[in-house]
Amino acid sequence: MNPKQPFEINLAAAQSLDAADPFRKFRERFHIPKIHDTEVIYLTGNSLGLLPKKAREYTGQEFADWEHLGVEGHFKAKNPWLYYHHFHREALAKIVGAKKEEVVAMGSLTANLHLLLVSFYRPTKERFKIIMEANAFPSDQYAVETQVKFHGYNPEDAIVELSPREGEETLRTEDILATIEKHGPQLATIMIGGVNYLSGQFYDLVAITDAGHKAGALVGFDLAHAAGNVMLKLHEWNVDFACWCSYKYLNSGPGGVAGIFVHEKHGHDYSLPRFGGWWGNEEATRFEMKKGFIPQPGAAGWQVSNAPVFSMAIHRASLEIFEEAGMDVLRRKSELLTAFLEMIIDRYNENNPLRALKIVSPRDPAARGCQLSLKAVSNGKEIFNRLNDAGVIVDWREPNVIRMAPVPLYNSFEDVWRAGEVLNSVAG
After folding, report:
1. d(Cα 100, Cα 383) in Å, to the nearest integer?
2. Are residues 235 and 144 in the same domain?
3. Which domain holds residue 274?
4. Are 131 and 123 in contact (CB under 8 A)?
């Protein structure tokens, strides 16, 4: 099956695709929400992923060890809490394309972004600018704005925003690269989303990183909508830093523990400024309680506080599923699912021109994740409400965008087909 080739759009075709899908078993590893005892069609894994069934077992183990061991659980628990961040490294490294030492599960997304910008946005009189998307998620906008102000610069002067051309919905790679070249002599850092939350566009991270380095800048990405969604090779691409959350495609719970990547070339550079904390200190001497921060090598040296064990346990339950499935094959299924949805939306638009949902995500499967963003011609909020009331769970972004994201771990082709049928029924 090729996502660039057309599918038949009917129930039998969807069921045939599901029957041939070797990953259909993973759906059974998640709790699917229900309305009136009927499973919903859940297309919002881009906002909050579903609960892995093993999460209760994994957190239950930590509750039991806390109950029976108390503080000794740091050393004697089945999964000793002192070393808990080690249990995620191998899976995270595979998901983002890194070496194990380059990743760590820690903190929360925006706090981690601030911690990384301490090290990787170091403006000088000559180089003080930072490039980001004009329509970045608000947390990124606020983080960059306040970092710039913290260093004494005016955001209007220091922040360079990337906007689509007039009449277009997504950024052209050549325009991004031209902007980097234009501001190169004054550019300190590039920090954009790997996949844009609103359009679903997957940027050319290789070209951006290469251009940023050629200009003399450091390059990092917010991978909140990319980790667990698209193929990443952060080490190979020579990316300097990255951060992500775990509650979207990584299915690790609302507000779940986040993660960071720091390339090994920086992970051993102890001269880099950073905000130190007890858990980032050299592990072998942590309990000697001495003055003088000595960071652990690698990304772990950016940790500040001890691991949130119960959140980390949920994270482990999800990451084990990714380990078993493999990102490369999940990505192939994802491209097929989204291509199937794309055809269904196109057919809907042909039949409903006055209530069309224009696809603003890239048409090229390589330039998007699993999400399709749909701009309503009219009555968008009404369509959104009717879909959700009918058990098709999608999300809404002002002023007129419905986002649908079929996730390969737990969504089926029949889910997508049924969503199209409901959409047609509520359009009138």
Report:
1. 45
2. yes
3. 59-324
4. no
Query: Of 360, 18, 321, which is closest to residue 7 (Cα–Cα)?
Result: 18
For the chain, percent of residues with pLDDT exceeding 70 = 98
Domain assignment present for residue 54? The answer is no
Handedness of CA 313, 318, 321, 327 (dihedral sign): negative
Tell me what pLDDT residue 1 has.
47
Of the three residues 263, 297, 324, the one that is the final residue of a domain is 324
Helix axes 327-351, 413-426, angle to 10 degrees: 20
Q: What is the total count of domains within the chain?
A: 2
For the stretch 296-355, pLDDT in tens is 999 999 999 999 999 999 999 999 999 999 999 999 999 999 999 999 999 999 999 999
- Judgement on whether residues 70 and 146 belong to the same structural domain of the protein: yes
- Given a contact cutoff of 8 angstroms between Cβ atoms, the answer to whether 98 and 259 are in contact is no
Helix (H, G, I), strand (E, B) or coil at 202: strand
Residues 367 and 288 in one domain: no
Last residue of a domain, one of 295, 324, 353: 324
Please provide the distance, in angstroms rounded to a whole number, between the alpha carbons at the two ends of the chain: 34
Residue 361 lies in a domain: yes
Tell me the C-alpha to C-alpha distance, in Å, between residue 253 and each of 83, 121, 408.
21, 30, 18
